[in-house]
Amino acid sequence: MNERAAVDMWFDPLCPWAWITSRWLLEVEKVRPLDVRFNVMSLSVLNEGRDLPADYRAMMDRGWGPVRVCIAAAETAGPEVLRDLYTALGTRIHLQKYELDEKLFREALTEVGLDPELAAAALTDERDEALRASHNAGMKPVGTDVGTPVIHAPGPNPDETIAFFGPVVTPAPKGEAAGKLWDGVLLVAGTPGFYEIKRSRTVGPTFE
User: Fold this and answer.
1) Complete edge-to-edge strand list for the sheet that includes strand 150-154
2) Which of 64, 67, 110, 133 is least enclosed, having the fewest CB within 10 Å?
3) pTM, whole model, 2 decimals?
4) What is the DSSP string of the chain?
5) What is the CA radius of gyration of the chain?
């Protein structure tokens, strides 16, 4: 593959595993001919109507804010702003342990050159139709029994796209190790009839 390929990732800023996968994809960009585009899915949308433990339900209630801000930013400045905004949000949420509040949103928006007043989008459902459309575009090809990260990538045949959940990995591989994991993921995800490899996680997310 000589031409650079477009790869789309769907993220919810809440998810630590998606954050690690996104950092891995940025490493893959350095060693493989691909460009990553970031898109919004929502764990809050995904879990609507589901019977959840009280603490997880509370997190899902709080989770509307970050994805609404992301959609507002994308509508204002174009979807390409999500790359830097996700980094600004994720750094604060996962590394600096910010609360999901106005301070987080205003700081992240300011960092990427957007009006911090867009933070108000966290408290309104006026962009939820656009949020659901973005969410469904990412999740429809993989189903609703998975969360994030979701990746859409070029398949082994021309004009074919393969979509899959994962990989879930920690810490994010660097350099050529990142590239080799990408090669392997594409190989298995592009195999007709392939659905799942999984084992129990024995460690939590590591942000290195």
Assistant:
1) 34-40, 5-11, 150-154, 161-165
2) 133
3) 0.94
4) --SPEEEEEEE-TT-HHHHHHHHHHHHHHHHSSEEEEEEE--HHHHTTT----HHHHHHHHHTHHHHHHHHHHHHHH-TTHHHHHHHHHHIIIIIS---SSHHHHHHHHHHTT--GGGGGGGG--TTHHHHHHHHHHHHTTT-SS--S-EEEEE-SSTT-EEEEE----SS---HHHHHHHHHHHHHHHTSTT---------S-----
5) 17
